[in-house]
Structures are given as structure tokens and as C-alpha cells.
Amino acid sequence: MQELLEYSFLQHALIAGILVSIASGIIGSLIVVNRMVFLAGGIAHASYGGIGIALFFSLPIFFGATLFSVAVAVLIAFITLKNKEQIDSIIGLIWAVGMAIGIVFIDKTSGYKVDLMSYLFGSILAVSKSDIYYMSIVLSIIVLVVAVFYRKLLAVSFDIEYAKLLGINTKFFYTLILVLSSLTIVIAIKVVGLILVIALLTIPTFIANRLSSSLASMMIISSFLSTIFTVVGLYISYSFDITSGASIILVGAGVLVIFSILSGYRK
Fold this sequence. Notes:
The protein is mainly α. It has helices spanning 8-33, 37-46, 48-56, 61-82, 87-107, 116-120, 129-148, 150-158, 160-165, 170-187, 193-211, 215-240, 244-266. Helix 1 runs antiparallel to helix 10, helix 1 (8-33) crosses helix 11 and helix 2 packs antiparallel against helix 11 (193-211).
């Protein structure tokens, strides 16, 4: 494990992994509690459109993906609030169209063709200092927003009807959670990729949900577990020369299986 601190690119990967893990623990808890996993999945896959547009116009990847993902999150919130009966069809459509847009723009990008695998399954060893700065800013925004609106987010997450009676703008916070989810998904692109990001958001949260008694403790435990999975997965990825995103998720999945078996045995 000490080898992870000997090279700068591994140091960057470790820092990025920790930053993304904390963000995933916080937002993953909100996603699971509010039953938004499928919506977040739609945002994750649709954000590929932002990557394609950014490459085509020579924009920073994170910048293009962020703008596109936030726009998709707001669109999903608007549509699903108006038409809850057809959420599955709507998300499936946005999911497919977003990825199609990304593929078309990448096909039309002249010169170097991007390695699609690095965005679909992660490329944490390619994280740069500028990426870490961006991740740090996004994590700071997430922590600040959740801290300021924690009580309202708590009310909306566990009893939306009661939250309405309190005068809380539930539509706004519904949209806010999706927007924060889109920010988390974008910074997780380098770590686990768009295909596996939902697993990073949900596996630690599922375990944390069993071990916590409040939303705050759930966020803390989930962030801690996500960090452990990421660090161990990164070490395995470096040691055995396998894709980092897949390694991290498999570590988390293994722990989840063991936890489920032990929990069933104790019962």
C-alpha cells in the first residue's frame, strides 16, 4: 500500500478517490432514501452527451459534462414532476438520447479519438491536478448545500407530505437533489466511469442504511465505506493491472455480499 504514495500519479488517484467517495456517500444517501436510483442512472448515462460536446468544441471535459448533466437533471426533474406515470419511459428516452448525442459528437471530432473505455469504466490513474481542484470545488459545494439545507432535505426525504405542510418547496429540493447528483456523477467519471457510478453511489449506502439511525450518520458511514472500497480497489487495480472502476466496484460488491450473509446469519 505504501507504493501508492511513491508516484505523483498514484497520489493524485488516491486524493481523487477520497474526494469522490465522500461526495458519493453524501449524495448516494439522498438518492437511495428518495428512491432516485433510476433517475440518477439516467443522468449518468445521458452525461456522455456532455463529454462528446466538450470534445467536439475543445472544452474541458468536466466543464462540458457538468453543464450538460445539470441541464439533464433539471429536465428530468421538470418532466417527472409533471408526468410521474411515465417516469420509466422518459428516463429511458433521455438515457438513450444523451448517449447518442455523445457518440455522434465524438464521431465528428477531428484528430485524436478519445478512449471510450476511460469514460465508461473509469481511468483514475489519469487524474490531473486540475481535476483534483475541480473535484474539491464540487465536493465543497455539495457539503455546503447539504449542511445549509439539511433539515429541509431530511423532511423532504422521509415525509414529503409533512414537508409540504411545513411550507417547504418540495419541488425545488427534488430538483436540487438531482442537480447535486449530476455534479457527483461528473466528478466520478474519472474514478469508476459512467457505467459503474451508480454502484458506487448505492453499494456503500445500502450497507450504511443497515448500520445507521439517521440520515447524517448514513452519509458519514457511507462516505467512510466508499473511501475504503476506493482505496482498496485502487491498490488491487495497480497491483494486478486491471481497470480501476471495475476493481473498486467488485471490492464493494464483495463486502456487500459478506455483510448480507453475516446479517442474515445474525438474524
